[in-house]
Known about the structure:
The complex is a heterodimer of chains A (about 130) and B (about 625). Chain A has a 5-stranded mixed barrel. Chain A has a single domain (about 25-125), classed as CATH 2.40.50.1010. Chain A has helices at about 5-20, 25-30, 75-80, and strands spanning about 35-45, 55-60, 65-70, 95-100, 110-115, 120-125. In chain A, strand 1 (about 35-45) and strand 2 form a beta hairpin. Helix content of chain A is about 20%, strand content about 35%. Chain B has about 625 residues and is an alpha+beta fold. Chain B has 2 domains: about 25-35 and about 70-225, Lipocalin (Beta Barrel), CATH 2.40.128; about 300-630, Ribonuclease Z/Hydroxyacylglutathione hydrolase-like (Metallo-beta-lactamase, Chain A). In chain B, strand 17 (about 420) and strand 18 (about 425) form a beta hairpin. Classes of the chains: A alpha+beta (about 130), B alpha+beta (about 625). The interface between A and B is medium-sized, with 33 and 34 residues.
Amino acid sequence: MTRKSLLLAFAGTLIFGAAAYAHHSLAATYYPNKEVKLEGKIIDFLFRNPHSFLQIEAKDEKGVMQRWSLEWRASGQLGQQGIKRDTLKVGDEVSVTINPSRTADDHRGALKTLHRKSDGFGWGDNPGDTSE
Amino acid sequence: MRIHLAVPFLLCLTAFVPAHAQVDLSGVWADRITEDSYERSGGPPLGDYQGIPLNDAGRMKADSHDHSEWSLPEFQCRPHPGPYQWRALGAVRISQEIDPVSRELTAFHFEYLRSMERPVFMDGRPHPPEYAPHSWSGFSTGKWQGNMLVITTTHLKGAYLRRNGASFSDKATMMEYITRHGDYLLVTMIVTDPVWLEEPFIQTTNYQLDPHTQLSYYPCTVSEENISKAVPHFLPGQNPNLGADEIPAVGARGGAESTYPEFRLKLNAGTAKEPHSVAAKVAAAPVNLNAGGGINAGNGEIKVLPVQGNVYMLVGDGGNIAASIGRDGIVLVDTGVESMSAKLMAKVLELATAISSSPAPNRCVGLHCPGTPFGWSSPSLNAIISSPAPPKPVRFVINTSVDPDHIGGNERMAALPADAKIVGVTFPPVGIAPGATVIAHENVLTRMTEPGPGLKPAPSGALPTDSYHTDNYKLSEFVNGEGIRVIHEPAAHTDGDSMVFFRFSDVLVTGDIVNTESYPMIDVAKGGTIQGLLDALNHILDIAIPEFRSQGGTMIIPGHGRLCDIGDVANYRNMVAIIRDRVQDLKNKGMTVEQVKAAKPTMDYDGLYGSDAGPWTTSMFIDAVYRTLGKK
């Protein structure tokens, strides 16, 4: 097997592994090339399949407080990264970056990074981002 | 002697020749994603319909797609539909169902990662009638054509061909041609849809036998994924995602031409057709296949569909009627048109007789069954040779609205025979008028007694005996072993609409709030509004609980059309919400109602629900929406 075909096979595994639980298209729901930063407080954490959702209260770009619904990975995938149902708690103050929804008024996004202010816990897309 | 030897030899040969050219397809087959891997894993580019023969209505439907629609509670656990399933990720497990006696193949069963178990019947059964419910996978039958399995699928719920809004309707038919080549499976799928496709959509997909692959558990729970309560969609011409992925528009817009190999040559030569646009093609609205009556067409017959529990759907001229039949008697929800009431009564009594005379399950076959008086009979035989008990009479009639096709048979249905008995009591008791209890909202009673200038009041025998004016009305005790709830919808089809919920049977009867063959009839003169109708549809979705993956569970009997479940009503609600938003937008721009009609805001759905003639036309629907919407 050549290096190129090995790379292709590896890339295929990555794609399949990431998408096995993605029943809808994330790129079709959220702008993959835009990022928004939010500072807020956790009000709900839905640790579930097919996607987990983190809901926070944070101000939008106009300074108006909104409830945001942030799509996260499936509970099984998060579990493999050491994130459990009780890792995050209601009331935790967090700083997050998201890919915003293609529908502007939806106040939702795909979670890219998360940082908890009280203890420095973090999660992100890149290997090593998760720290405790 | 040589002949004697040859005969058994030939018999042995024959014994191993299959009766039909059958091929064993059982096993777990893995998709290798060798076709269109990009769109199957990450998701297809928005607005890219190349290779899909969408017609103009189908393109308008696709262009309005907002992917946030997947966050609607009814769609979060929706499985991939039959026509998309072969291109979805994950393996397929195929198993065979063999009759243990005859050893005939009676069915194949297909299971996919995200989807329901899908049977393909091989026993020669016909497809269900058109008023039977639809499912995400549809109803499939198969037959062999040489070594190829040919599957025909009907009764599909409308859903997506590609995960970017390119869709097929619930009028679509799917053919699948499955051939096994050693350890490889070739699946050729052809989808025909008279509503959103101008030619059949053809797609092939390969699978490989993989004994190391297992279908994993796929849990799914519904929660609040989207804070917004609206139905996500884009207004015509306002989808910002079209053309965003640098795909040549002339190809991305799809259409039959884009499915042929010559299209590439035309692209290179610059002779391909210009991309279609809604504005340029508004005159091309498809014709509603239901025009002329559809399921409830006037053929003078009443058909019976057992729903679940005590409840049956009677499909008749002009509309649907629900009947609960059991030990306490008969409950009718609506009584149809007056001209059919004799046939309706005969059909209901025939059904009630059959049900009331059914024996208990026979656990004894042959002579000397214990517990029988003569020792030579069984409970079944006793029921056959004895004269069955007469059916119990109609005890309750509930009217969902004041329309003639809902109250027309009230008088005949509510009249009890003079010697009728209910639970051992002879009716009518002295001094009490004979007849069943007729329940309706008081606005129905008012309109029946005071129908307006020039109209004749309903006869007294047809009037509601128990009208109510609250949000809810509960029958005071169980009937046929279950509670029955009557729910008022204050401004939907009219201001007197009732929905009836059979709590144990888990069947909701909606009256004209749902009509699978027409735009909802909003009777503005009787208090109907578009927003009230939408509220009522959302109320149905609040009450209904699916059995699994957004289908089954609470069954919903519409006023007209086929038996539904939560998935069907979600599709219908989305259509109503999308058209409401479009008309609102045009009204906000200052358009008159005639200008709104000329803009054809319903064009993508006209093939399913529209009509140019009859009692409820597309023009009348737009008119009602326009009139009952305020300007925002």
